[in-house]
Amino acid sequence: MIPVAKKTECVKVAVRCRPMSSDEIRDARQCIVTVDSNRGEMTIRNPKADASEPIKVFTYDCTYGSDSAQEQVYLDTGYPIVENVIEGYNGTIFAYGQTGTGKTFTMEGKDEPSELRGIIPRSFDQIFYTVGQNPSNEFLIRASFLEIYNEEIHDLLSKDYNAKLDVKENPDTGFYVKDLNLFAVKSVDEIKEVMNAGRLNRHTGQTAMNKDSSRSHSIFSVVVERSETGKDGVTHYRVGKLNLVDLAGSERQSKTQSSGERLKEATNINKSLLTLGNVISSLVDGASSHIPYRDSKLTKLLQDSLGGNTKTLMIANIGPADWNYDETISTLRYANRAKNIQNKPKINEDPKDALLREYQDEIAKLKAALELHGAGGGGQIGIPGMQMRGRQEVIEVEKHVYVEDQEKIREVEARLEREKLEIEQNAQAEIQRIEAQKNLAEDEKTRLIEALKQKGEHKRKAKEKQQRLLKKLKEMEEKVCVGTQIMEQAVFQEQELQKAKQEVEKRRKQEMLLERQLKEKEELNFQLVDKFNSLQEELDTKNKKLKKLWTKYQSTATDLRDMKQEIQREKEDMMDTIRVLTQQLKLKSTLIENFVPREESEKIEKRALWDEAEDDWVLQPLKASSKQVNSKRPQSAVGLKQPTSEYARIARGLGDANTRFRHENIITLDLDLPERTTEDYNGIVSDKLRNIITSILNDIENDASFVPIESYSFAAEDERRSSGTKRPGSAAKRPGTATRKKEGAEPRPPSSQNKARKG
Ligand SMILES: Nc1ncnc2c1ncn2[C@@H]1O[C@H](COP(=O)(O)OP(=O)(O)OP(=O)(O)O)[C@@H](O)[C@H]1O
């Protein structure tokens, strides 16, 4: 029976101080942090305070100084969590701290030399080592890698890693990232490849504090599914999830000298870390029932790790130099608060959605299909040692035959290929034999050959189907790990060594605990002895106590002052953030006010609705108004362009030219033709042409439909030509055009035309 923990446990907190950087050494910075790893203490001195101010001491589960080894850090922090994850617990390790203090160094470390490898690669060794140690179990191990950059989630393992992923909520399992890739891995090398591929996609950039600063929060997750058959013969499944979180650095905008894109990143980083701080404070206060997980994507994804069903470890990274005092003390307080978060971890046993179970079912189905197909398709090709019985039995048999399965699959593959070839050769030989038979009629031969070909085709298809099933079976089995497959001697020895080291470490911790208990007992003894001493001694003791209380009072007073200063700094940072956001808002507002019509932006505002789940504004679909749907164009009056009243029609019939009786809004005006631009003809005109023109002009004069023109005589023209004066020429209007009316328009007296023009 697997034990299920029901009790609560606190988030474990480790603090690590990095060595002085080369810049800090060059600038002759003071070291203000001292570490006592045996006692789990961190001591910090305020470089600006006077000598009377007591130094501050913080106690954590583990503390590490500048000379701490990566291996030691892993044995204390990562090892127990990974052990629990393989047992079916959820586990989270997250690194928090000011930018440039060693979060990435602690989580990922350096590839070379191998002693510098961080928690993430060391956890891979441990996971696959444990798989190797349990040959009777089956495991399915999958990995994912994401980053939260500027409040957007990106899958670092996706081909399209620029795509933004959504956080969704499942009522049973909490928040999760939709469409995140999870890769099945079978060895340390494979999972390393996955990590390195994702690392290349991470957002990093240079700031004044760190030349290779992580500008995003990253979460590398490993899901370990494990199946084990109990003594009762029933297979049990356990699923543990390990989250390895490298947070972006907390930073003050003034110190990092960030601007532009860096400033925007910093604003988003600070916003999500502030929300993380608020979540921690709310969990620790216990006063408020509302925990603001929803305020950022980071806290949504860490919900289960903070106050949920997870074994969590926080590593707070700090720097030792005096110029970082404010940030260091802030991190130490942050870590101190996190110590009090209560989680309720429990083993995830037999979850409904265990993928390993689905894989095993699929494998069993494929084997059964192969068995069935092998019997029907000519020849026994099933996997030996496996028969179809109940589901549990099938899986049990699989476990025994698994290792040989891969070899047997290869054997069967080769056999299938051979048989396919034989079928083709036999069919060919048979065809030749039939063709050679002289006593058979030609059509009988054709019939026999056709039947033979069909039979051969049928057999070939059956073999191909078997090959396909085998291929799929091979693929499925390749995803499931069984211990003996990956047991490598070198890894084994290293892990054995680590186990021994961990034993030593455990003993060291026990010694520490005993030392603490001894100290407490000594204090108690001291108090007891005190009781029986003389009055003078009692006075001395009281004096001592008073002194202690006085020191405590002083320390509390400085704490209070520090906290006030810290709140003030946070306020200033928030003001900085508000300033940046206000600037962005102003820019957007200016753009909208000047380039988007007011009624359009109002319409969009009315349709906009805040979607809690999407964490974004959404536009509601447009509703068609009833007015729009029902409105109809009025029918035109028959024969007219628009309806006309009876009265107007009569008035117009009686010749009333008033514009209000017109059925269309077109004013009748004289044609305003362009002025003449051609040159007058000054050459000699023949008598014949002159006669023709004169007769046309006479015709026009006699036509009643034309208004009489001003007199035009060739005689006058001749006279003008002979005197050498120029005709008014281009300014003169062409005969007749001035009074020509628009075709179809009613004739009107000039006075009414003028009125219309004015109207
Ligand atoms: N314990 C340590 N021992 C030796 N070098 C360290 C240690 N911690 C950090 N460093 C060095 O300090 C530098 C900054 O470390 P790192 O990039 O890990 O910081 P970070 O906290 O992840 O920064 P950011 O938040 O900007 O990403 C690196 O060059 C790293 O090698």
Automatic annotation (TrEMBL):
Cytoplasm is among the record's keywords: yes
Example of a GO cellular component annotation carried by this entry: microtubule
Protein name per Swiss-Prot or TrEMBL: Kinesin-like protein
Keywords: ATP-binding, Coiled coil, Cytoplasm, Cytoskeleton, Microtubule, Motor protein, Nucleotide-binding
UniProt GO MF annotations: ATP binding; microtubule binding; microtubule motor activity
Principal location listed in the UniProt entry: cytoplasm
Family from the record: Belongs to the TRAFAC class myosin-kinesin ATPase superfamily. Kinesin family.
Taxonomic lineage of the native organism: Eukaryota, Sar, Alveolata, Ciliophora, Postciliodesmatophora
Pfam families tied to this protein: Kinesin
Coiled-coil spans in chain: 402-584
InterPro entries registered for this protein in UniProt: Kinesin-like_fam, Kinesin_motor_CS, Kinesin_motor_dom, Kinesin_motor_dom_sf, P-loop_NTPase
Organism: Blepharisma stoltei
Disordered: annotated span: 712-759
Lineage: superkingdom: Eukaryota
Subcellular location: Cytoplasm, Cytoskeleton
Positions with a binding annotation for ATP: 97-104
GO biological process: microtubule-based movement
Domain Kinesin motor residue range list: 10-341
